[in-house]
Amino acid sequence: MSRVLVLAAILMGAPGGAGNSSGGSPRLVLGGEGPASRDGVYFHVEISAASAPDLSSAKWEALDGYAQDIGLAFQIQDDILDVEGNIEDLGKAIGADAARDKPTYPSVLGLEAAKTRARDLQHRACERLAPFGARAAILTWLASFVVARRA
Length: 151
What we know:
151 residues, mainly alpha, Farnesyl Diphosphate Synthase, three-stranded antiparallel sheet, elongated
């Protein structure tokens, strides 16, 4: 079963943002099957030209890099939880990757190095949001959530 998390990001005064009622906001989408999906989970930034007409190519690149960073951080955290999570929080068996002899970040890098890599990706993702200032606060929160989650 795929998980879907959609968050509105108020960037560049996009339509639908605070004080603006003319359409959909940019969205960051987590879930489902798609390109670069691993075990049914992937990230992508879904922002149409209509919702962010003044977004420069540099800002598009920043958002794309952000999505790639938190997507990988999410996967690493998923791998970590398969090692040290619990069935009550996750709702699934723990250790499935190891039982299938599946290469994961903890099995390749080691558990502590995998945790460090996830945190580094979180920090880099947040640094990429600097051009958006406070308008990207929810995306900063999301990057923290991705690495801190226990389920």
